[in-house]
């Protein structure tokens, strides 16, 4: 068997495994939650960032279908109102609020509004994100926007919302919609510097400073044109790094919040939705937005489990 044939076989086997898992998820999604698993009600407040389209829109819809009150947020008011109208016409309990996660004032106004109207939040789904490359393109022209939105915006939103998270026996939840491209130890797409990888992997010594300075070092090299020899991930570099930072921040937050007492717990996990047919991928991919929303929704609704600081795909834990 030559190399090309071997590669084809590997691809076919991967496709086969993926299709089987998708089939299994479709079946799991038909299994209703039992009453004792339904810790939520119509008074449970979930917030989804970037809810006007793509995966975020589907996460909003699925959470609302389970009977929660979902705040669909969007940086663009018209797009957000239109998306909300669609879900209201389906009889779902969805409320629109403007939110741009790279705008500090927008985050502040959102938090003040949510506190005044609902008193707090039970679930935050950090879904908003950008990517400016499709296929094998690897331009870093928009690297600043990508890192600022996917990592710094997500981090700032999380920090602002944590004090608003309501205490409950089941715990509040934060879900980061991340990506396998941000894996620390991906075989074909990773940071070259072994020491830096180890520092980012060691959750005990991991710090916000380390994550921020790694992102700023990359952005500095983008500015002075030296990034190509910087030993950064080779595939979709800015986006991969932004999601690597999100994954590291998930583990850091989980570690910090694990010290909170029972009854006040906040569980933080991240997930990869797969390669999804949305505007971000120019509608290329293996997965529909509806299927992609499944794992974040499942994580948001987990009952009786104190899972935190983990990375998931297709309802299974995966390695960072
Ligand atoms: N599609 C994939 O294959 C894939 C794979 C792995 C991970 N993901 C992740 O999944 C999430 C959703 O992506 P998608 O595929 O559904 O892409 P999408 O259709 O492009 O949706 C992205 C959403 O994020 C919003 N957004 C961007 N910047 C924002 C900001 N500053 N403030 C608030 N909202 C902002 C967008 O708003 P506008 O409509 O105003 O632009 C849009 O609602 C992203 O985090 C993405 O990185 C996607």
UniProtKB/TrEMBL annotation:
Cited InterPro entries:
CBR1-like, NAD(P)-bd_dom_sf, SDR_fam
Kindly indicate whether the keyword Oxidoreductase belongs to this entry.
Answer: yes
Q: What does UniProt give as GO cellular component? A: membrane
Key word DNA repair present in the record?
no
UniProtKB keywords? Coiled coil, NADP, Oxidoreductase
**A Pfam family recorded for this sequence:** adh_short
Q: Per its UniProt record, what CDD domains does this chain match?
A: carb_red_PTCR-like_SDR_c (cd05324)
The organism's place on the tree of life at top rank? Eukaryota
Molecular function terms from GO: oxidoreductase activity, acting on the CH-OH group of donors, NAD or NADP as acceptor
Enzyme Commission (EC) number: 1.1.1.-
Q: Which spans of this chain does the record mark as coiled coil?
A: 1-28
For this chain, the family text in UniProt reads: Belongs to the short-chain dehydrogenases/reductases (SDR) family.
Q: What is this protein called?
A: Short-chain dehydrogenase/reductase
Organism encoding this protein: Tagetes erecta
């Amino acid at each position: 068997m030559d190399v090309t044939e071997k590669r084809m076989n590997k691809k076919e086997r991967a496709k086969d495994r993926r299709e089987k898992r998708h089939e299994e998820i479709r079946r799991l999604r038909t299994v209703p939650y039992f009453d004792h698993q339904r810790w939520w009600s119509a008074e449970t407040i979930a917030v989804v960032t970037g809810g006007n389209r793509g995966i975020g829109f589907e996460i909003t819809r699925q959470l609302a279908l389970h009977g929660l009150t979902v705040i669909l947020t969007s940086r663009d008011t018209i797009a957000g109102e239109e998306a909300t109208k669609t879900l209201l016409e389906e009889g779902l309990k969805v409320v629109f609020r403007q939110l741009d996660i790279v705008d500090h004032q927008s985050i502040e106004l959102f938090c003040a509004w949510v506190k005044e109207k609902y008193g707090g939040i039970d679930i935050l789904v950090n879904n908003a994100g950008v990517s400016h490359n499709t296929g094998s393109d690897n331009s870093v022209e928009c690297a600043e926007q990508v890192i600022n939105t996917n990592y710094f915006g997500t981090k700032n939103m999380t920090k602002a919302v944590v004090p608003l998270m309501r205490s409950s026996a089941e715990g509040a939840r934060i879900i980061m919609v991340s990506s396998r491209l941000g894996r620390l130890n991906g075989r074909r797409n990773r940071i070259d510097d072994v020491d830096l990888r180890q520092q980012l992997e060691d959750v005990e010594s991991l710090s916000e400073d380390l994550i921020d300075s790694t992102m700023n070092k990359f952005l500095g090299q983008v500015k002075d044109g030296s990034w190509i020899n910087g030993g950064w991930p080779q595939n979709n570099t800015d986006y991969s790094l932004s999601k690597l930072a999100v994954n590291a921040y998930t583990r850091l937050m989980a570690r910090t919040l694990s010290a909170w007492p029972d009854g006040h717990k906040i569980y933080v996990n991240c997930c990869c939705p797969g390669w999804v047919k949305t505007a971000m991928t120019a509608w290329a991919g293996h997965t529909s937005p509806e299927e992609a929303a499944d794992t974040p929704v499942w994580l948001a609704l987990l009952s009786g489990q104190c899972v935190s600081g983990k990375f998931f795909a297709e309802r299974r834990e995966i390695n960072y």
